[in-house]
Amino acid sequence: MTKPLAPHGLPGHLVAFVEALRKRGIPVGPSETVDAGHVVSVLDLLDREVLREGLACALVRRPTHRPTFDGMFDLWFPAAIGVRESSPDDIELPRTPDGQVDLNALRELIANLLIDDSPQAAEIAAQLVDQLGQYQSANGPSFSAYQTLREVQPETLLRKILDGLLGQQGQAKDDDPDANLAAEVARRTAAQRIADFRKMVEAETRRRSAERLGKERVANYGVPKQADEVDFLRASDSELTQLRSSVNALARLLATRLAARRRRARAGEIDLRKTLRKSMSTGGVPIDLVQRKPRRTRPELVILCDVSGSVAGFSNFTLLLVHALREQFSKVRIFAFIDSADEVTHLFEPNADLGKSMWRIINEADVIQFDGHSDYGNAFGVFTDKFVSSVTSRTSLLVLGDARNNYRDPNIKALRELVSVSKHAHWLNPEQRTQWGSGDSAADVYQDVIEMHECRSAKQLTAVVAGLLPV
Description:
19 helices, disordered N terminus
């Protein structure tokens, strides 16, 4: 059974929770903290889920922050302390005559609980972690969600749960037009309930581990990162999908920053000659300063983008972001490359499906000349031969890629020519700075020619792009 949260020291505990959220990138100010204090004072602390939702309403401002908040809440407001106390109504794990857990009967029990969407599934998950997920490490007893789920194999229960859900709905007739829809809904429901059960096991594992290792340590590796902190090169498909959905919000944020910079720059620099001339009427004392009118121009942007598999996620997201900011530039031209380069601007028209555009780059553009492995040197050479006129003194040049050149000629001469002609030139690299120049990376050579920025996450990318935007 769940032990209640002790009211003693609750304000200090809440402040520690807020500080932990800030460290994970969730902006929580003093007013939100005060609101959270009011929430705690009026809610029933024995109802943990009500407390979770109340604190979420007070502290979370963006939907993308919710997974991180939930993970931190489970650590700072655990469902229990130590082994959960059992009650007469709790379900016990089925066992064989010799006292071992009966895995076949256990899978049958879990399937029935998930079919009925029973809250007792959480009790079974907690018992499983204690009975099957515990192992002895060098530092004492530890818990493993992988070990627990390996024994249970909940994925094998999909068919049984699906049959149970369809049986609850009644047998559909073959000629029923809604039969396929009902089957698809049942299939997704079954998959979701299995996924939810896995999350119960993982949450219980984190709770038990936090008691031994400390909440802060477990939070570092056990709580999901926010979407804008996920490493581009290690992001899963679901994380990349979440990142793509946040592009417009990031674009609005950057546009707001740009507007603020323009307001600050609106007055312009002091015109010394006109100021001195005007000071003649005041005896040579420059009382009234004359300022130059700022020249507001929107530069042209040329993007050279590596679309090879190793950096495809980073390039995709960056192109989406630049596409959302295209109104900040007078002209945007996009060139893709792997071991050769080709212009793909026409694939990124205002109403284009950008996901399809990335697919069309690989299948329609002339970006592969040899073996399909990254060759920055040859790609730069092809670009200077065919498209060098696209870079002028009004152009901001942006290179996207990890500079992994497969030990080939980096062709520094071609890149230096492009940089010397352009107004601004920057390279966005999704690899960690300490890895530049290691192995087949030519980043250490290229950064002597062009200013290179580390952009491993959307958060870093936003900060870099904000500094590169024109005023």
